[in-house]
Batch of 2 targets.
Target 1
Amino acid sequence: MNTFNVPTREDVSTNNQTIFDNLNKALGFVPNLYATYAYSDTALENYLTFANAKTSLSAKEKEVINLAVSQVNDCNYCLSAHTAIGKMNGFTDEQILEFRAGFSSVNTKLDTLAKLSKNITENRGKTDEVVLENFFNAGYTKGNLIDVISLVGDKTISNYINNTTDVAIDFPVAQPLELETI
């Protein structure tokens, strides 16, 4: 696979340089995937606006979606980043592995969310009716559903950018998912 070089601050547009500066202040670094978005003069800003937009879902719920979708799309960069973020949100290693596999053994509501996220991604939005019914029966709303689908799309874009560009992972690398161990 052709690995893209990660652009530096000097390689990107003035607008993206400002975003790099803000990311450095907020995170202490510019993640390689974000820098890769900056090959485009507009994609990084658009991505960050969308990724940080208001949603009806909690930070933990967003991470469940990110982990399930990134696993289906086989994106090691996003799996590594969201494993780290999942831990920051209080999830254990075992919970993270379960979300990646599309379920939760300890939280029925997050179980339905993980199953839905995995199903939407695997079936390209042609969601299984039983999975959808279980999602609603767990207390989620139609508004939550639209937010889940939006987040699946958002994460899929990042997965595809990384899977195409193969930029270096700058987070602790997530362990491979071995279903028989969870």
Target 2
Amino acid sequence: MINEKLVYLALAILGLAGPFIFPDYTMQIAVLWVMVLMASTWDIMGGQMGYNSLGNITFFGVGMYISAAIQVSMFYDLGLYTASYGAIKPVFTETQYYTGFIMGVIAAGLGCVVLAVLLGLTMFGLRGPYFAIGTLGVAVAAREIAGTIEVIGAGAGIAMPFLPLPIEYRSLFYCMIFFALAALAHFVIRWMFAQQFGLAANAIRDDEDKAEAMGIPTLKYKLVGWSVAAFFMGCTGAVFGNMVGYIEPLEVAFPVATFGIFMVAMSLLGGKGTLWGPVLGAILFHIVKETTWTYLLGLQWVVLGLILIVNIVYFQQGIMGWLQTKYPEKFGISVDPSLTNQKEEA
């Protein structure tokens, strides 16, 4: 059986020592943990429950704007702060920045939980491709709405307060926070699916009607699963907005065509419905993405597209799913020899 302790040790070394070993790639390592977190939280619904959401990026953007609004409005008038004519020249003290940052991240996570519950009460009336398209519509609508709200900068965007640290330490600060968030999300998901929640989620994925007939409150479990994903996506968006330093609705807050698709692709690549599949998929996808962006600029989308095609055509179960089928004993999976013989005879 694969030793998970060694895997955790390797990831801990990468998360804690990576930025010091590879200081020139600290920003890339920070985004790596964002990718891991996105893929892992998407898999709660998409992999474990069979509800393939294309709109989880909504919580990323909403969390980003909630945090920005909290961080600024605690000390300045938000409308004047975002005024295009530069009505005020704000200066945030060290205490003000960290206080606003902490409050903003917490508010972003909780605000997205509320949004997930409100959306879920409506969206969970849809199933299959209708749910996927519906959630995609929510993400696109949220992006367009954000572009019309003047108090948060509308299409012009909003500049975030500067982190009061020397510039060489800013990327490290955010990298460590993203690593902590990704680790926390991983262990929360691991704990959730080791409980009754995991059995209920898989029952919903296999046959929701039969699960309801057995007395499982499917709506409750779906709301809980989506709320957990929304909380971590909201917190991630809040931190990401601070790291980027500038928020606008199209490419930063609601990047539907990039991050919105990446989180699905990474989970599929690694193997959805497994604990480690999304993590593995996110790491491999991010490495390929950064490599092609550096050495194959102009062809990077072609390469990523080919990866998705090969994945969907030849490895629909993902890397982890294929490995578990090929080498079940390595993952502690016992296979009845009689069933194997029957399959071979057939």
